Amino acid sequence: MLSRFGYGAFGYCGIQDFTVTGSVATMGQEVFTGCKNLLTVTFEADSRLTNLAAWTFEGAEELRRVTFEENSGLAVIEARAFQGLDKLEQADFTACANLGKVGNYAFIQCGSLAQIRLPGSTAEIGRYAFQGCASLSRVDIPKKVSFVGRYAFMGTGNVNVYFQSSIMPTDVEENWDYDVAGYYMGVQDILQSGDWEYALTDEGTASVIAYRGSEETIVLDQLDGHAVVSVGGGAFQGNRQGLRKSGVMRLRSRLWKRLFFRRV
After folding, report:
1. Phi/psi at 23 (nearest 5 deg)?
2. How far apart are alpha carbons 4 and 11 in whole angstroms?
3. Are 210 and 180 in contact (CB under 8 A)?
4. What is the domain class of 1-185 according to CATH?
5. Tens digits of residue pLDDT in 78-131
6. Cβ atoms 205, 187 nearer than 8 A
7. Residue 241: exposure state from Cβ atoms within 10 A (0-12, 13-18, ≥19)
8. What is the mean pLDDT of the chain?
9. 153, 74, 178: which is closest to 121 by C-alpha?
10. 201 bridge partner residues
């Protein structure tokens, strides 16, 4: 039964699509290094692999999708595992019920990465984990996360971070939120209401994420019956068509950074 891929096992091959059988428990570094034609990698259901090694996909510059099928045993994404995959569009780890750690620089410079989905088991997000992921607009942080490293989202610019927990993780490093547009606590769902986008919290309150309308006068009071308690970073950024007056009523929490910031 196949159980191991050694260092650089398929390096510089012309593979386009690759399936890793569930029996593989160990993969060395740079297994797919230099595979410039590689488009997709699928890890079969019931995968025994626990660690995705550093530089696994180094130089696989056309890779678009990595899929983990149900009941994956993956526990650790090591440092720089996905480094520099500029065409990687999505990474879904929700089938990895044992995933606890996203290592330092794990997704650094994945410029096309628009979606990352982490399972509830995730406890640690490393330093610079998503640096340079300029297409990333949303990251949901599971309740078990206790550590977020410094500059985890540096170079993203427009990402909103949604913590499922209503309490900030116990071990969050300084500048973890550098380049984060806004972060929200106790988020249960993200909802749309007309021109408004908001986060519904576990207390039944609303945190404004974005307003895309053209009303000249806005009263920040309630959205769909939920009391507005905060306004996220950049929520009204670039709104030039309206918004000449703003009334703030019963806004019980601080206005977040860059409320009316506009780039010129």
Report:
1. -75, -15
2. 15
3. no
4. alpha beta
5. 999 999 999 999 899 999 999 999 999 999 999 999 999 999 999 999 999 999
6. no
7. exposed
8. 90
9. 74
10. 187
Sort strands 226-231 and 206-211 into parallel, antiparallel or unpaired: parallel
* pLDDT tens by residue, 38-74: 999 999 999 999 999 999 999 999 999 999 999 999 9
Please, which contacts does 141-146 make with residues 24 or more away whose CB atoms are closer than 8 Å? Answer: 141/165, 141/169, 142/118, 144/120, 145/169, 146/170, 146/171
For tokens 């025994």, what's the residue? 48
Phi, psi of 199 (to 5 degrees): -100, 130
Q: What is the dihedral of CA 170, 172, 173, 174, to 10 degrees?
A: -110
Residue type, 142: P
Please write the tens of the pLDDT for every residue from 220-245. 889 999 999 988 877 887 766 655 55
The three-point CA angle 93-94-96 to 5° equals: 70
Could you tell me if 55 and 81 are in contact, meaning their C-beta atoms sit under 8 angstroms apart? yes
Question: What does each C-alpha distance from 94 to 6, 43, 50 come to in angstroms?
Answer: 27, 13, 15
Q: How far apart are CA 104 and CA 152, in angstroms?
A: 8
Residue 252, token pair as written in the block: 């019980």
- Token readout for 160 is 């909103």
Could you state, in order of their start, the residue ranges of all structural domains in the chain?
1-185, 189-264
Structure-token pair, residue 102: 């996203």
